[in-house]
Amino acid sequence: MYVRPRYRRKLTTAEPAAASPAAAQLQRRSHVAIVPALILLGVGWYLARFSILFPAILAFFLLSGALGLLGSRLNPLSATFYLTTKPSWSAIGTAFLSGGALLWMTYEYYLHSWGPIVPHLPAF
């Protein structure tokens, strides 16, 4: 019995080419946490002029947020339960490094007395 060979259908210009699996894997990682981490690093650096408590509090928020991102990255159910995309390792690393930099800066400001611990309030 004769079986006709199957020919590969040619792509037209109206049909997009299929994406590779590696490209699909990259689209499932979110880098959105990098920008807020860097903004909080800059804000903490600026607010350290007024009190070294501000960068310490921002460092706590950054480190706790990075731990939350790490937990959602390692949890196998997170992508189907409450996240559409998992955070990238670079986003988690940036949040950890920003928090660590703020803690280091707070320690250096305290050690060398470069900034006040409590903000100075104007006298009324």
What does this 3D model show about the protein?
- By secondary structure, this protein is mainly alpha-helical.
- The protein has a domain at 30-111.
- Helices cover 56% and strands 3% of the residues.
- It contains five helices and two strands; from the N terminus they run H-E-H-H-H-E-H.
- It has a two-stranded parallel ribbon.
- The chain is rod-shaped, with a radius of gyration of 24 Å.
How is this fold's topology laid out?
Layout: H1 21-27, E1 29-30, H2 34-47, H3 53-74, H4 78-81, E2 86-87, H5 89-111
Parallel strand pairs: 1-2
Helix pairs in contact: 2-3, 2-5, 3-5
Core attributes:
124 residues; mainly alpha; two-stranded parallel sheet; 2 strands
What's the overall geometry?
Answer: rod-shaped
The SSE order reads HEHHHEH
Distance between the termini: 102 Å
- Approximate strand percentage: under 5%
As a whole number of angstroms, the C-alpha radius of gyration is: 24 Å
Tell me how many strands there are.
2
**Strand order of the main beta sheet, please?**
1-2
Low-confidence segments, given as residue ranges, are: none
Q: Biggest β-sheet, characterized?
A: 2 strands, parallel
The helix content is 55-70%
Helix tally?
5
Mean pLDDT: 82
Structural class: mainly alpha
Quick rundown:
The chain has 124 residues and is mostly helical. The chain has five helices and two strands, in the order H-E-H-H-H-E-H.
